[in-house]
What we know:
This protein is mostly helical. The protein has helices spanning 25-40, 58-65, 72-86, 103-114, 117-121, 124-132, 141-144, 146-155, 169-186, 229-237, 258-266, 269-280, 286-312, 315-344; strands at residues 11-17, 50-56, 93-97, 161-164, 198-201.
Amino acid sequence: MSEVTNQTAPKRVLSGMRPTGKLHLGNYMGALKNWVALQNETNVDGSPKYECYFFIADWHALTTDYADTSELPTNVQDVLLDFLAAGLDTKRSTIFLQSEVPAHAELTMLLGMITPLSWLERVPTYKDQQEQLKEKDLATFGFLGYPVMMSADILVYQTDFVPVGLDQEAHVEITREIARRFNHIYSNGDQEILPEPKTLLTPSPKLPGTDGRKMSKSYKNTVLLSDSEADLRAKLKTMVTDPARIRRTDVGNPDVCPVFDLHKVFSGEEIQQSVRVGCTTAGIGCIQCKGWLADGVVKELAPIQERRKHFEAHPDEVNAILDEGAERANARAEKTMKQVRSAVRLARR
């Protein structure tokens, strides 16, 4: 007689990143650290709470950088190394390259057949990115249709949750709309073929770059996860501070200082308090404040950089991880595509 268990089936989680080069602190604190926490989360009985899929979105990189793909292989490798260095574990997560799972492209095409152009043209980032990237010709089918591909990425695994920060919730809504439309057209009243994914809100702290703006490679203001301690300290020394604090003897206001925003993330309560008191009384200078910040960042990155060195020294192990990830992702995606093809009447049997 078999035992009846109350083990909860894990909910499926999916997210990905475009390969634009080595990842920085903003990528880590805004997404990657949360992914690691999700893969490690367990139920009361010790079973995994989430079935995690994390991918490198190399096809998405082509939507804006199709004209020059020379750095794409290196960028893919760097992002993968940072994934693994941050703590993503193949025993708990499926880690894969988007282009090695053809079902992403197949479902993109099928969803594109039913997605109204007006839905794509109203996506806020469509016009915003065209404005920001004026030097590139983005009047392309691929750029207009990237939300369809994003939806296919999510829906091909019949994903339950997409981890996002509060400011990114709207990005998942078009996926929900496309899934709803597909189900309405093809489900015939049966169970939904493409369940509408929910957002899984994750912490996304404010992380300014060295110039005070949002940390971004396009602004060239980043601190990389792989920066040496010397480079890291040199970058943070140049970071902008409270503009009212011009001289060492001027008092400052930590609440308007980008350096203090980073202290809130990387420094403990004791250091934060010392910074607040020292800044508001001119008891410390900005160089000392930045030095304390660098200490906290170095401490956070030390284990990450140690793991990165390991994987850099074992390329065969890294390639095997992508091979295994592609095999697992293809197997799961094919389960969805069999249902999709049958619903659309593409299957012969």
